[in-house]
Specification:
The protein is of the alpha/beta class. The chain has six helices and five strands. It has a five-stranded parallel sheet with strand order 2-1-3-4-5, with helices on both faces. 42% of the residues are buried. InterPro entries: Flavoprotein-like_sf (IPR029039), FMN_Rdtase-like_dom (IPR005025), NAD(P)H-dep_reductase (IPR050712).
Length: 180
């Protein structure tokens, strides 16, 4: 199973990336680090995208599933993540997100765990044709949510993360079985 993990944060000490590293302990996944290299979406270059976009699309296309962890900036998803999703959604109805199993998690220093950004991210993914798993994870108070080893302190959050990863794997395995 090839699960590609995408952090919506560019920050080196990102809580979203920390959450994805925690998820890596539950399943084999590859953390994609190319978000900062993606230029602004420009429909004029849709048919001949920049190299960084082509590389991103190829990596997403190879993945059986995506696990995206997003912070919340001004009540929604970060612009750079939305930009990458716009590139992934093209060409229209043929983008690499069509029928792709995706799980969404959010991490925020607020009491709400990036709940709003997750809602917006789910909407964008669904419009792009992705198959978004029902379960999600909100990790509030990110500054204290992880222990010194980078693991979630809250056992309920650990259980939810494991169940979400299991649901993502099951959806991806069902999709693979249909494609064979």
């Amino acid at each position: 199973m090839n699960i590609l993990a995408i952090s919506g944060s560019l920050r080196a000490g990102s809580h979203s990336t920390r959450l994805l590293r925690t998820a890596a302990g539950l399943t084999d996944l590859h953390l994609w680090n190319g978000l900062a290299t993606i230029p602004p979406f420009n429909e004029d270059h849709e048919d001949e995208p920049p190299q960084a976009v082509s590389a991103m699309r190829a990596e997403v296309a190879r993945a059986d599933a995506l696990l995206i962890a997003t912070p919340e900036y001004n009540g929604t998803i970060p612009g750079q993540l939305k930009n990458a999703l716009d590139w992934m959604s093209r060409p229209y109805l043929e983008g690499v997100l069509v029928d792709k199993p995706v799980a969404v998690a959010g991490v925020s220093p607020s009491d709400y765990g990036a709940e709003w950004s997750q809602r917006d991210l789910r909407k964008v993914l669904e419009v792009c044709g992705a198959r978004v798993v029902g379960r999600s994870l909100c990790v509030p108070r990110a500054d204290t949510a992880f222990d010194e080893n980078g693991q979630l302190r809250d056992p309920a959050a650990q259980t939810t993360l494991a169940a979400m990863v299991d649901e993502l794997r099951a959806l991806a395995e069902a999709r693979k079985a249909v494609l064979v």
